[in-house]
Structures are given as structure tokens and as C-alpha cells.
Amino acid sequence: MQPISIVGPGAADLAGSLADRLDGRVAVVDAAEPEATDGGVGVRDENSEPGTTPDASAHTAIALDGDGSWTGRGRVDGLDDLLDGLAPDHEYLIALGQSRLRVPTVLLGEDLKESAVPGPVIAAADAPAAVDVEALLAEIDAAEPWITRETLVDRMTDGADADRAGAIATFTGRVRARDAPDDDRTTHLAFEKYEGVAAERMDVIAAELTDRAGVFDVRMHHRTGVIEAGEDIVFVTVLAGHRREAFRAVEDGIDRLKDEVPIFKKETTEAAEFWVHRQE
User: Fold this and answer.
1) How would residue 204 be classed by pLDDT, with cut points 50, 70 and 90?
2) Distance of alpha carbon 257 from alpha carbon 12, whole angstroms
3) Same domain, residue pair 217 and 202
4) What is the pTM of this model?
């Protein structure tokens, strides 16, 4: 799923223009006007009547309530969980009124042009009409997609060797708040990739692990940007004939990713901010 965040006055107008132009299923998550659905959630598909959601151009539209959570497929307390739930069924997501998402972001309004946001700023303008929509569409499609563990597993099980596999093993790395009970709490980590080199190295590792006897497919993904305590960082998934081959490949995959892939980590705690050298 390709996500984009639009922040500032007129975000909904720009979202409507984009949703009409994007080729695929589009979800719109609107946190700017939670009263639109009386604190609940509106969801529609292609067969629903227009005008029943915050954005009638979307295939799925969700309005968040005042505390930033939503109801529908169960209550979700984090925006990452929300995006993870939408990713398998949508090609695009447009988030409105959320300034903390680490996804490509459009800033609207004079006051927001220089705002610091976790994700890359791909456009900034005083008003929606000043945004080059064609250029924005190209930026969205070129951006890093929102990948989930379930996305990787689904891709593996759709493969030609899936009917020979008796095991799927996965590893998920997440941001821990503390190493020890008396440590300062980690609020977030920030990851930067050596562009191109990191992806190429992960592809090599996955291919070498897939060459092992009994291993049919290996996929991995490391998120970048600001990731908060409790949120997911990295996934390694393995499709194999038996559990032993699957477990070994998962363990070797994450070990090699941490040792060989140029990804740099800055940690922010309640007391300090510092770059973290590879030590795990």
C-alpha cells in the first residue's frame, strides 16, 4: 500500500482530487473532522451510496474519534495498527490531519511549510490549488510502500512453491521502551537507510537463504523514519518445507540483516538522544 499524509487547511479537497486519479483501491483516514461520524467510523465499498463517508471518492473512508482511535474492525489505539489493517486490501491510503505519520507528507498553509514531520515532505503549498497533482501522483508511486508482516506472508503463500510448504516462520522486531526496569524510557527510534544499497543487500541475503535445501521463499522489510515505542520495525518471513529449516532461516535472516545491511539508528529517551552502534 502506498500511503500519503496531507496536513493543513484544504486537506480534504486535495484528498478528493487524488482519490479520483489514483488507480486502485483507496482508503481515506480523516482525523481532521472527527465529528463527521459522531465519533465513530464510516466504511464504504464500491457499491455504497456516495456521500455516506467523509470522502465519497474513497473505496474505504474512516473518521477517527477525539482520542485518535476508531471503531469498526475492533478498536485500534495506534495509527500503525490502523494502517496495518488497511494495507492488505488497498493500493493507496490518504491520511488527513495526522502530522506524526512517517509517510510521505503534503503540507498545506503558510504556517505549515516549515513544519517538522516524521515522514518526507513531498509537497508544500499555501492551498490545494497550488499543488501540482501530476507531480504528486508520481511522488506517491515512487515512495516506499507501507509493508506489513501479513503482506510478506501473503506474497509467499501466493507463490508456486506454497503447496510444498509445511511451515511459515516470522520474526518481528519492535521498539522496546526499556532494557531494564530502571532505564530511562525510550520514546522513539529514528532509522535511516543507505538508499539503494540497503535494499540490494536485503535482496542478496533473502536469495542466499532461499537457496538452502527445504527453504522456498524468504522476504524481509525494515521500516525507516521515526518509530515509536511498541511499534514494529522489521519483519523477516520464511516459507519452508519443515519447521527446522524455517526457524533457522528466520534467525539467520535477522542476524545477517542487522550485521550486513546499512541501516542507521538514533534513539531518543526521556533523558537523551544518541546514535546507536550495532551491539545486539
Assistant:
1) very high
2) 40
3) yes
4) 0.74
